[in-house]
Amino acid sequence: MAYDGPRIDLSDRVDDRAETDHEFRLHRSIFEDEDIFDAEMEFCFEKLWNFLCHDSQVPNTGDYYATHIGSQPVFVHRQEDGSVKAFINACSHRGAIITPFKQGNAKTLTCRFHAWSYKCSGECIGIKNEEGGYGTDFDRSQYNLTEIAEIGEYRGFIFGALTDEVPTLDEHLGESKFFIDLFADQSPDGLEMVKGSQTYVCDHDWKVQADNVTDGYHVSTVHRNFMHTIQAREAREGADGLMKTEVGRIKGDVKNGMYYLGNGHMCIWADRSSPEGAPLAPATAYIEKNFDAIKAHWMLRRGRNIIIFPNLVLNDLASTHLRTHRPLAPGKCEVTIWCIAPKGEPDDARFARLRKFEDFFLVSGLSTSDDVVSLDTAQEGFYGSEAGWNNYDRGLSTMKAGPDEEAKKAGINPELHCASWDYEAAFVGWYRNWRKLVEEGTRDAEKPAVAAE
Ligand code: FES
Ligand SMILES: [Fe+2]
User: Fold this and answer.
1) Does domain 175-441 have CATH number 3.90.380.10?
2) Distance 98 CA to ligand 1 centre (A)
3) Domain limits of the chain?
4) Which of 25, 341, 345, 375 is deepest in the core (most CB within 10 A)?
C-alpha cells in the first residue's frame, strides 16, 4: 500500500527523557490511531524485511507457505532448483488468493476462480478457454505472478521484502543473529517446525503484542496462576528431569538481563533454575563438545525471549516456540504460534517439550490466555485516552548504552541494556526505532502533521 495519510509528528505523543530524567512515556492514542496504523503497515512492515517461514515448512520442490507482509498476502514457493521464491498471493486474472491452503505442495498452482494456472516459478502457463476468448494480441507472459523484490535466508529462517530499498538481510538482523544461532545450532540436523499451529485474533494493538515479548515485569503477576498450578501438580504427581517445569525464572531469583539490540530487535534472558528440565538438556554433551563454554551456557542454562522486528518471536524457555504477529487494524492483531524443535531429538525430550509448550502457550494453555486477557484489557483502557500516558520508567536509572558484562563475554553489542529483565529499557530502544520509522516514513506527506490530542 502507498501511505497517503498526513505527516506524523510524534513529539507530543512520545515523552522521551530516558537518559536525562529516567522518564519514558507513550501517549495511549498511539495504540488506536488510524493514521499511525497506516504508516506502520507501510514503514514498519511493507518497507522492511519480514519473517516469512522456516525452511522446514517448505522442504521439497513445490512446497508453498502462505503468509503476509503487512497488508499484502504473499507466499513462499520452493523451486525446482531448490531455491525459494516468494510472490504476491493474488491471481493475475482477478485477484483470487492462488494458494489452495495455507501450506501444501503444488508444482503448478491452478486458481480456484477461473482456473488460470501458474508454474512454481510464477510463470502463467494456462488460461482456460484461451482460444477465442481473447484477442490475437493477448500476451500470456504479461500475466505471470508478481514476485516480491527480496528473499533471503539466515540459518533456515526465510525472510522477504517487498522492495529492494532495504539493507542486506545480514545488516537488518545485526546483533539478533547471535540469538538465532542459539536456536539453529541446537542440532547438527537443523530445526523443524513441529506439526500443528494455532492462530488467534487479539483485541489489542500489534505493538502491545510485540512489547509483551520482553516484558518481564508482568510475569510474576499474570503467570502466578500458571506457577501455582504447576507447583501443585508437581507436588501431587511428581516431575523429574525433563518433565520438571522451572519456576525460579518466574520468581525472578536467577541472573537475568535485557537488551535492545538495534533495528527494533530486543531480548530478555534469565538463567534456568532447573537446567535439567531444559528442552535441550539431553543434548548437553553435543553442545558442550561443539561450542565454547559461554555459548553452551546460553544454549543450555539460560532461557531467552527475543523479538526480531517487525514480526518474529523466538522463545526458548520451558519449551521452544516460534511466533509471528500481524496487525489487522488499530487495536487488533493476529498471532500464530508453532513449537520449533531440533530435528532428531530423543522421544522423551520431544514429549516433554510438547507438553510444556501446551501447558504455557496456545490459547488452551495456562498462560497465553492470561497474556491475551491482560493485553486486551490494556487496549480497552487505551480508549480512555483522556487519562493520557503509559509509563515505561521502570529501571531506567540503570539503562546504559552498549553491552553489559554478559554481552561482552558473548561478543554481542546491544545498543542498550539495563540491570534486570523486568526493567523497561529495551522498550526505549524499540519505541525510538518505531518512532523513527513512522516519522521519517511520513515526512514527505503533503498533508499537515497530526494535531496533538
Ligand atoms: S481470478 Fe484467478 S482465474 Fe480468475
Ligand atoms: Fe506473558
Assistant:
1) yes
2) 8
3) 50-154, 175-441
4) 341
Tell me which residues have their CB closer than 6 angstroms to ligand 1.
91, 93-96, 111, 113-116
Which residues in 382-412 are b (16+ Cβ under 10 Å) and which e?
A: beebeeeebebbbbbeebeeebbebbeebeb
Ligand 1 closest atom vs CA 112: 2
Ligand 1 atom with the smallest distance to the CA of 128 is 3
Please tell me the number of Cα atoms within 13 Å of 262 on its side-chain side. 16
Ligand 1, atom 3: closest residue by C-alpha? 114
The three cell numbers of residue 411 are: 561478543
- For residue 367, the CA-to-ligand 2 centroid distance in Å is 6
Coil/strand/helix, residue 193: strand
- Residue 110 CA, ligand 1 centroid: distance in Å: 9
Homologous superfamily (CATH) of 50-154 is: Rieske [2Fe-2S] iron-sulphur domain (2.102.10.10)
Which H helix or E strand runs over 60?
none
Q: How far is the CA of 108 from the centre of ligand 1 (A)?
A: 14
Report percent pLDDT > 70 for the chain.
97
Q: SS3 for 81?
A: coil
Q: Closest ligand to 313 CA?
A: 2
Give me the sign of the Cα torsion angle 430, 201, 328, 15: negative
Q: What is the pLDDT of residue 251?
A: 61
pTM, 2 dp = 0.95
CA 407, CA 172: separation in Å to the nearest integer? 19
Residue range 294-305, pLDDT digits in tens? 999 999 999 999
The helix (run of H) or strand (run of E) holding residue 279 is none
At 451 the three-state DSSP class reads coil
